[in-house]
Amino acid sequence: MPKPLTVALVAGAALLTRQALRRRIQVSPLWPMPALDPPVSGRPRPRALRLLLTSHETVADGVVRLRLEGAGLPRWEPGAHLDLVLPSGLVRQYSLCGDPGDTSSYTVAARLAEDGRGGSREVHERLAEGMELEVRGPRNRFPLVAAPSYVFVAGGIGITPILPMLRALPDGAEWRLLYGGRTRASMPFLEEVRELAGDRLTVVAEDEEGRPDLAALFADATDGTAVYCCGPEGLMAAVETALPAGAALHLERFAPRTGTGTGGDTAFELELRRSGRTLTVPADSTVLASVRRELPDTAYSCEQGFCGTCQQRVVEGEIDHRDELLTDAERRDSMLICVSRAASDRLVLDM
Question: What's the pTM value of the predicted model, to 2 decimals?
Answer without folding.
Answer: 0.73
